[in-house]
Amino acid sequence: xxxxxxxxxxxxxxxxxxxSKGAQKLENIGVYLGKAALIPFALLxxxxxxxSPFLRVTGxxxxxxxxxxxWLGLMCVWILVAHGLVFFAYFPSIHHTSELWRWQHKGxxxxxxxxxxxxxxxxxxxALEKVRRNHFNLFxxxxxxxxxxxxxxLFHCVSQMVYVVTPILLFFLDRFIRLVQSRKPxxxxxxxxxxxxxxxxxxxxxxxxxxxxxxxxxVLAPSISKFEWHPFSVASSPLDGTNQICIYxxxxxxxxxxxxxxxxxxxxxxxxxxLKCPFGFKLQLEGPYGDESNFYLQYNSLILVAxxxxxxxxxxxxxxxxxxxxxxxxxxxxxxxxxFCVRNQKDLCLLDTIxxxxxxxxxxxxxxxxxxAFVTSKVDLIKDEELSSSEAIVPYQHYNYTYMxxxxxxxxxxxLAAVRExxxxxxxxxxxxxxxxxxxxxxxxxxxxxxxxxxxxYAKLTNYNRALLYCVxxxxxxxxxxxxxxxxxxxxxxxxxxxxxxxxLANSLPPSPDKHSKSxxxxxxxxxxxxxxWEGEVSLGKRPDWKVLFADMARQYExxxxxxxxxxASKMQEDxxxxxxxxxxxxxxxxxxxxxxVSFEL
Length: 602
What we know:
Elements: H1 2-11, H2 21-43, H3 53-58, H4 62-94, H5 110-126, H6 129-134, H7 136-142, H8 146-157, H9 165-182, E1 188-193, E2 199-204, E3 215-220, E4 230-233, E5 244-249, H10 254-263, H11 266-272, E6 284-290, E7 301-307, H12 312-326, E8 335-342, H13 356-359, E9 368-375, E10 393-395, H14 396-403, E11 408-412, H15 431-455, H16 463-496, E12 524-526, E13 535-540, H17 546-556, E14 561-567, H18 570-585, E15 592-597
Helix pairs in contact: 1-2, 2-4, 4-5, 5-8, 8-16, 9-15, 9-16, 15-16, 17-18
């Protein structure tokens, strides 16, 4: 169409007062660049709607969809930059420069477009990887300029809203559901400090809240920050029957260190080995989100590769597989290798939060699980009659008992009658209720705008008032029409959800006090590492040789399809992906490694 318009300009006979053909062509290009930007602008709202029906239908988990949002955002802003440059190139030859700062009441308003473009550029710069990783708080705060961008986009060209209204409605409905779910503070059922410094937190969940082993939660600690939501992988299995969700927090970044310090009185902990009672420390939760299909169950053999705290989702997978074998389900993984890389030997204690024999006695008869642990820092070995100081590879069970026999500090939670569990109202919750809320919102929008158009009042409004009217209609559609459906959802769920009673805490925990007893006094020391039953080895002072490891795995799994799941640093993911590709595509190899990244990175 732009080419046809250019030909029309070339063939037109010049009239008195017409602008130059070059300026007209530039104006034509600028208009179509602006229209082209509407495509990525409309689409970029969908991937960041965490409970989006589109994501659920396509099976794309939110953590992967974020990448599409990044690409679409970049495309949108760069097209708008080109739109702006062309605009500034032709504007002086067609309009008086004073019109740049005027707010036109009809047609296109120039000044709001400049403000929207400026907001988009700020978001673009702060979303660059180096800025985002080094200054996450800056990225997080400036990304809320999307509200400024959207508002001034409406002021700039409100007539184009019709092309983008559906995904924007979907996004704000998702935000509203998240707000309703997370406004309720959640009690901590139990807290455990592991020898590595990682903290295990457990929360109560409604019995009919469903999630999968690769799910994750967004967590807000209001006493640390009222705005910073951070994702944490779920480490529990939905089949454990305890009506609880478990996450692990390792104090690495500023936020996790602040949460760690808030839960633990550091000075008191060092001097007396005590854990500060964390149950006045309330959290707010969103989710769970993540893969809605347990895709790892399609493989008979699994290789799990984890670095540091990245082992958390694999703890959930190991528990899930063991529970499914216990339930005698069919077509389950029967061979699992876990390659676990850590800097510090104490980080291995995360594996000992699971005792596989407690979940499934004699599990070795049904599923072979082998641990390959790598401690990359230098370790001074203890000399004893069983372990030579010259050894670089140590049997996991012996190494675990010798080096990791440190107690974990644990505190159980409040009386069960006082427990406040997380809300069932989640964007990734019951499909029927989510769909009903979405359709109620869309129908509400159509009806409200239909009434406005029938009365003829919309045509009489200026650009400014039309944009504000759109904002009001969006609010009424989401809150006024979608809100009542959410209230009905909450009402029916309260009637169907039984009150948590007996099995709220994990099987490994002491029973939580009832409403007539006093809370626990002091800390409980646990030495779970004395009872580990994992099989495998620990390689000391070395990093994994991926070529050797995957060559061995290729020989072991010759002729099979193997699922390879990786959670860790980007370099580790690249190295493992390369080995999977090399062996799968090699003529000399008869194994297919199917690579899956399960790392969540913004």
